Amino acid sequence: MNHQQFHAAVSAAQQGDRVSAYRLMHQVLHDHPTHVAAWLWMSELVTDRASQRTCLERALALDPSSQVISQRLDLLRLHSLLATRRTDTPAKPTQQPLKLGDYLVTQGIVTAAQMAQALRAQQVARASGKRRPLGDILVRLGWLTPEQLVQALVQQQQEKVQPHAIQAPERLGEYLVAAGLITTDEFATVLTQQVALRQRGGDMLLGELLIGGGYLTPDALEQVLERQRDDLLRCFNA
Question: What is the reported pTM?
């Protein structure tokens, strides 16, 4: 790995040269997409919250035990929730799709206080090396039913694959539905299985469940995962 390029990017960022820092860090991630520190630094170099969250979520997926990353991600989510609560303007079809926590709060399914408590519980879990999805925590606390969780996740997916959507797919399910490899009903079915499995203490990735259920072949899954990674890096060129 070319550590010199990474250190040059960090140095440029520390000196206030964000343009050079962004260019260098983008090249580092292009060459080494599993570089956790580079994703963390990139989250400081992009300017919009969606890109910041994408970088932090990618870093956390690579290092689930990192308190620094999880704290930054939780803080960013709380800021998004507060910003959502401050506006009374109904969401328009061309607006950016809401994240899960934002959707649940704005729809009145959970309160902002409940969401904040769930985020704190998620942070505690991450500090102990466990990664627990926010929706699962809300279900375990009794503030959300598994059916409501699946409905919210499917709603997110549908908004992101609509023709008028301004945000490209981010998660695996969104890519699969957008590509026509699975239907929305199949996506909901597998999500229900995944949520039920996690509530019993088990865990399987969405891709594994899709392959096991005969909805997808391993080769098709690998192609979509490759496209997902390439799109994630390409978005920083905008």
Answer: 0.45
